[in-house]
Amino acid sequence: LVIPRLINLLEKQINKQLNVRYDIAKGYVQGEEDTKYLIEQISCHETISKEIKTIMEKNKQDGMKELGLMQRDNPDIVTAVKTKQAVQTVLNTATETLKVLISSGLVDKNEEAKLQKMILQKKHNLGTLPSTIAPPTAEELLHSISWLENEKKQIEFIQERARILCYDYGDIICEEHEMPEGIHLIISGMTKLCGSSPSYGVANDVYELRNPKWVPYTDYLVSGAIIGELNCLTKQEMEYTVTCETAVQTYFISMNDLSKAFDEFLECPSLKYKIWLKLALDITIKAFKEKLAYQDWSYKMCTKLPNVYVMDVPTHRKWDIYDGTMDDVILVHGSVRDCQKEQPYFAPCILPKTCHEVQGTAAVTKLLIVRTTTTMKRKSSRRCSNACQYHSCGRRQDRL
């Protein structure tokens, strides 16, 4: 009778220690990344700054590899930790939103006390969450993809055509400078991504002038990550090589099947538009952490999401921005030219508010628009519809 209870107790203690280890490792990686972006604010010597950044990037990659190996060895524990962190983020966002509502006078004192008590109780309940949660299955991962948004017809369409592929340690999933064959959703295992720094659709000659020294780019991808989204959308060659660090299993969606899905699901918001929106948010959050004015931008995006949309800027066509309905305009892919000052801008870049008319200068140019919160929902619907109609029109012209 004693031995099973002792084993159960030991398992709980081991799981608790692994939870703490994963939390510490993730905090270390995040700390290295945040500090790397702030080095230029601390050190005025460019040589020293570069050397420190190189060291921190290496430390970050080592930490990322350890996190990936922990997820491979203990997927149930890592899933539980990620769930707790996601709940904590939601509760923190709720606290910040409540502060805004209180300062605006939309919540009285009685409601304020009740809501604060409720949020505090939820935070206390985080300790009661289980230390292990079964990792999601392949089908559950497919349902959790942000651009599918639990759309039953779209998920069924993808499931009918997707294939499960298995790779061994050292296998190459895709290579740099090759044309993309499709999208890979990692079900299990860990992969290493190596290549040059992302160009975000900037022309090769311009990119080489802006980045004369080749800068290696390394990242580790684990369960739930997607490979090849941007390249399949732009139909441009891969900018990185993905190698298996462990045995890997992926859900593979071919380019042909993806194109059929784009043709099938054109209603607003179209499937293609939703993928662009997801990528635009990822690029923006990753690229602008070093901007002091935008340090909390990614944290507050949960409250801004209803006011965010992606806009196409066709080549050689002028487009008005900052027309009174926009808080921020971010160039996430391609390049534009300020029509008044003749100033070029290259992705990723926050366009200055003195810029009111731009013209696309790349094959594919995308802007992420953050509307003002006072803009009517009717205007948002119309703009979203216009953006999606542009995608639909483009698809029809391609077929013709």
UniProtKB/TrEMBL annotation:
It comes from Mauremys mutica (yellowpond turtle). This is Cyclic nucleotide-binding domain-containing protein. Residues 167-263 form the Cyclic nucleotide-binding domain. Pfam families: cNMP_binding. CDD domains: CAP_ED.
